[in-house]
Predict the 3D structure of the following.
Amino acid sequence: MATNGKRVALALGAGGARGYAHLGVVQELRARGHEIVAVAGTSMGALVGGLVAAGKDEDFAGWATGLRQIDVLRLLDPKWRAGGAFNADGVVAELENLLGEQLIEDLPIPFTAIATDLESHREVWFQRGPLVKAIRASIGIPGVFLPVMWNGRVLVDGGLLNPLPMAPTAATPADLTIAVSLQGPRTQRGTQSPVVENSADVTADEEGTTVFRRLRDKLGIGGEMTTAPKAESNRAQPDLRVADIMTLSWDAMQEMIARYRLAGLPPDVLITVPVDAARTLDFHRATEMIELGRRLTAKALDDAGC
């Protein structure tokens, strides 16, 4: 294990609740004496990255590890609204409690949050202004969380175009660039080569019963997160199942984009969290994901001699 601390530029990727692993990454870096000198983040990576830059990540970790599934449901407020299944008012309120009116340009560590402008199809890099607003703009997964407005434009999750933001850290004078991808290969996965098949085997499932059973049993989605209070179960449960489908589709897209991004601008050290380590909305699994982040970081740094 390296004893001499290095200056680290950190890129934190998108991936919903798997992003708790970012907290474990930072803990391991600090334990080894490394100094984080710049952070860029997309979606959950922007949320954790902003907290790291403000020195509030440990406070957030303490809060997140106490969340139960019912707490997560209350925070997300699962009601179908125009443009998204959930609002993020509960999460934003907690961020405001932790960060107050902190401005990005006043942070002790330079920080960039990535969002996507739906009109111009380009990235928006927030490097100035209120930190909480920048984070909120970056976490708006289309169809899952409500988007936000900026200068008359609609902003959604930065992961739509850039699930692993290496570019904002490229000019940082650092000894190491470290990227944390939440789109790593599944723990049990076959080849990614295209499969040529006969479409005669394709069947429709209008009620969705077979589809959701397959996803629940094979991929581990649906579970308790689709359980709503009895008085609201008929309304809330279908919305959560739609969110399951959308977040799985989102993961598939981001995995491919992240791969191309890394090929164009590879980091010195890449830490990959398997995409099936947690579902996108498993925000009650902070303790497990933080520990996973620490383990994966320790291995990656040991392999790199850092």
Remarks:
- The beta strands are 7-12, 35-42, 78-81, 84-86, 111-117, 122-126, 148-150, 153-157, 176-184, 269-274.
- Residues 46 and 169 are 13 Å apart (CA to CA).
